[in-house]
Amino acid sequence: MNALTLSGSIRKGSYNRLLQRDVSERLRRRGVAVTELDLADYPLPVFSEDIEVEGMPDAAVELGRLFVAADIVFIASPEYNAGLTPLLVNTLDWVSRQKGRPFRHAVFGLGGVSSGKLSTVVGLSHLRDMLTKVMALTAAIDIRVGPGEEAFDTQGQLIDETAITRAELLADELIRLAAK
Ligand SMILES: Cc1cc2nc3c(=O)[nH]c(=O)nc-3n(C[C@H](O)[C@H](O)[C@H](O)COP(=O)(O)O)c2cc1C
Predict the structure, then answer these.
(1) Atom of ligand 1 nearest to the CA of 146
(2) Main-chain dihedrals φ then ψ at residue 75, nearest 5 degrees
(3) Measured between alpha carbons, how far is 135 from 21 in angstroms, rounded to an integer?
(4) 118 pLDDT band (50/70/90 cuts)?
(5) Which residues' Cβ are closer than 6 Å to ligand 1?
(6) What is the spatial distance between Cα 18 and Cα 9, in angstroms, rounded to a whole number?
(7) Which SS3 state, helix, strand or coil, does residue 102 take?
(8) Average predicted confidence (pLDDT) for the chain
(9) How many Å lie between the centroid of ligand 1 and the Cα of residue 35?
(10) Ligand 1 centroid, distance to 115 Cα (angstroms)
(11) Domains contained in the chain, number
């Protein structure tokens, strides 16, 4: 079984990157081969059908290939203005245009860290809705963490007990669903 994990933030010190790393480790401990993507390595222009006609960017083709090959995809998504980050929306729009139905293969797990106590509850709802509309299977349990500065220790380890419990449940659920 193999998994792809990504973060909707490429900010230095991103809390969502820390959550991505945490879930990646939990999946590895369960025997899953995990590819931890850094979206900074896949620079893409803001999506336009004109660019698509001129020629599909290599990064979009490679991301599409990775999504098609994955049994599990975990997305750590910040919340921007009660929605998603432009980076994540742009990435998913490019992926949606790739061959092989990139959202139809894996089971998707969602999580997010924000600076507020309400965490990413609204943003993750948008993300789940969008993924459902493109026929992706999403695990019902998600991981909502906030405020980010209280949830991780100085080494970047997740220390929020509720988040840890949910991350454990999600890792188990992703493997259970992917095995079906
Ligand atoms: C443009 C922008 C909009 C934001 N909007 C929200 C929001 O709607 N809700 C929220 O909880 N946090 C919001 N935040 C704060 C982010 O949750 C916080 O910056 C978080 O740490 C971003 O994730 P990262 O640490 O992975 O980069 C916003 C931040 C930015 C830059």
Answers:
(1) 11
(2) -115, 120
(3) 26
(4) confident
(5) 9, 11, 14-16, 78-82, 113-116, 148
(6) 10
(7) coil
(8) 97
(9) 25
(10) 6
(11) 1
> What pLDDT score does 4 carry?
98
Please state the φ and ψ torsions of residue 33, each to the nearest 5 degrees.
Answer: -85, 115
CB atoms within 10 A of CB 90: 17
- Summarised one tens digit per residue, pLDDT across range 55-98 is 999 999 999 999 999 999 999 999 999 999 999 999 999 999 99
pLDDT-based confidence at 119, cuts 50/70/90?
Answer: confident
- Sign, Cα dihedral of 6, 170, 85, 136: positive
Query: Any idea what the CATH number is for the domain that residue 145 is in?
Result: 3.40.50.360
Domain ranges, residue 37: 2-179
Ligand 1 site-directed mutation target among 14, 115, 122, most atoms within 8 Å of CB: 115
Asked whether the beta carbons of 91 and 39 are under 8 A apart, the reply is yes
Give CA–CA dist 19/164, Å, rounded. 10
Taken as a whole, the chain contains a residue count of: 180
pLDDT band at 37 (very low <50, low <70, confident <90, very high): very high
For residue 104, the model assigns a pLDDT of 97
